[in-house]
Design goal:
Protein name: aldehyde dehydrogenase (NAD(+))
Keywords: Oxidoreductase
Number of strands: 21
Organism: Nereida ignava
CATH superfamily of the largest domain: Aldehyde Dehydrogenase, Chain A, domain 1
Strand content: 15-25%
CATH topology of the largest domain: Aldehyde Dehydrogenase, Chain A, domain 1
EC number: 1.2.1.3
Family: Belongs to the aldehyde dehydrogenase family.
């Protein structure tokens, strides 16, 4: 792998400086790779390559772009095992999770974009003599996180390139190996030089340089709300478009008439990917008559959730991604022990694991929305259970957060589910365990961000709207 180089203008090139960073395997706490870290000269070179490639790429036929994207998809599928092992090593996804969900999410979104792109119209008649044109915005800086590497890289790169934009990708420095492999796939697919570029680096370095770069027309970022605010401020001086997919503190409202598996399903969803998902249902709101039973069920799910190394097969959860994340989660669990009632898990590693960033699946009961564990995005396998008495109280509790990404509703009363779903202030509301369809818009309200990803909605993110009078079709 090209860990010591960047992909700029169709070539793997040496970095401008000698700065490097170790990539740590979170299951072993050992160095698994060392990557080069970019500086301003590297960022400038990548942006310049993207800018130079934009005029020609933006005018290519739609069919030509589709052909290259289809070729990329074929390469992605053929090298899925390589990608799964990279993700498993760099961020701790167990083998089954890496192969099925981490890699599968990428294929799912590629297919969703290709399906949406097939019938996508870039020109529409507004009147008999006036057209509305959708045109690529230009050079796009794409800054992606470590928790679902392929999910987020593909949600940004594929629609940007499909619509005629050129891009500079900065994957997370914590999980960069999958991004480097992705660049290899793009090169093998044969995209023209400069259409796709990759520079590794951290947020304060390359991330900030891209955010304020005068030749970058748009920044698409997925990560923490804190970083999203910093990027928005950096981008303000050049008035570039900023699309943000940020944090969450999802409420899972379980009414008394919910199905028998609702609690176990919700707890397991919270613990999936070791709790490292922005859309995780980390606040379980339970109607009072079912509350005591729910606490027992959630605790049992936590205790039954096996934790182990990412290299092992099975349905267990792996470590969290880094020492910094491990320490943050441990500190918040300590705070939770003082605020609420610990019914499962707690601080320290699970039994039998004395090395690696492993966290015990943890459940707190008797939580209220004033507690820090109910308000902070912990980003670990930690569930807070909150009782409620009325439908109105459940809605108020769910909405009482700075976040608004995904909420969940469990009830056998269809009218109630729809009524509550319409009142929840979030970009997505999942009900009764029914997942979203391919191409559904992914994104949030409030401090969870301001853009939408996936399908036709994701294509629109990278387009400008132009009105053209006196239109004559060619």
């Amino acid at each position: 792998m090209n860990t010591q180089e960047f992909y700029i203008n169709g070539q793997w090139v040496a970095p401008n400086s000698a700065a490097t960073m170790d990539v740590i395997n979170p299951s072993t706490e050992e160095v698994c790779a060392t990557i080069a870290i970019g500086d301003q000269a590297d960022t400038d070179a990548a942006v310049a390559a993207a800018k130079a490639a934009f005029p020609a790429w933006s005018q290519t036929d739609k069919a030509d772009r589709v052909a290259l994207l289809q070729k990329f998809r074929d390469i992605y599928v053929s090298r899925a095992e390589d990608m799964a092992q990279a993700i498993s090593t760099e961020m701790g996804a167990p083998q089954q999770l890496a192969r099925v969900q981490q890699i599968g999410a990428g294929t799912w979104h590629i297919d969703g974009f290709l399906k949406a792109f097939d019938g996508f119209e870039f020109e529409k008649m507004h009147t008999p003599t006036e057209a509305t044109l959708l045109e690529p915005i230009g050079v796009c800086a794409l800054i992606t996180p470590w928790n679902w590497p392929m999910n987020q890289i593909i949600l940004k790169v594929i629609p940007a390139i499909a619509t005629g934009c050129t891009v500079v990708l900065k994957p997370s420095e914590v999980s960069p190996l999958s991004g480097i492999l992705f660049a290899e796939f793009m090169h093998e697919a044969g995209f023209p030089a400069g259409v796709f570029n990759l520079v590794n680096g951290d947020g304060p370095g390359v991330g900030s340089q891209l955010s304020c770069h005068p030749d970058v027309d748009m920044v698409s970022f997925t990560g923490s709300s804190r970083a999203g605010i910093a990027i928005s401020k950096a981008a303000a001086d050049t008035l570039k478009r900023v699309s943000l997919e940020l944090g969450g503190k999802g409420a899972n409202i379980i009414f008394a008439d919910a199905d028998e598996d609702a609690v176990n399903r919700g707890a397991a969803r919270c613990f999936r990917n070791s709790g490292q998902s922005c859309n995780a249902p980390t606040r379980m709101l339970v109607e009072r008559s079912r509350y005591d039973e729910a606490v027992i069920q959630a605790a049992a799910t936590a205790e039954a959730t096996r934790v182990g190394p990412a290299s092992e097969e099975g349905e267990h959860i792996g470590p969290v991604v880094s020492e910094a994340q491990f320490t943050k989660i441990q500190d918040l669990i300590e705070i939770g022990k003082k605020e609420a009632r610990l019914v499962a898990g707690g601080t320290g590693r699970p039994d039998g694991l004395n090395r690696g960033y492993f966290v015990r699946p943890t459940v707190f009961a008797d939580v209220n929305n004033d507690m820090e564990i109910a308000r902070t995005e912990i980003f670990g396998p930690v569930l807070s259970i909150i009782p409620f008495d009325t439908e109105e109280e459940a809605v108020a509790l769910a909405n009482d957060t700075v976040y608004g990404l995904t909420n969940y509703v469990q009830s056998s009363d269809d009218a109630k589910r729809m009524r509550v779903g319409r009142q929840l202030r979030s970009g997505m509301v999942e009900t009764n365990g029914k997942g979203f369809a391919q191409g559904s818009p992914f994104g949030g309200y409030k401090q969870s961000g301001n853009g939408r990803e996936g399908g036709a909605f994701g294509l629109h993110e990278f387009l400008e709207v132009k009105a053209l009078s006196g239109f004559v079709a060619e």
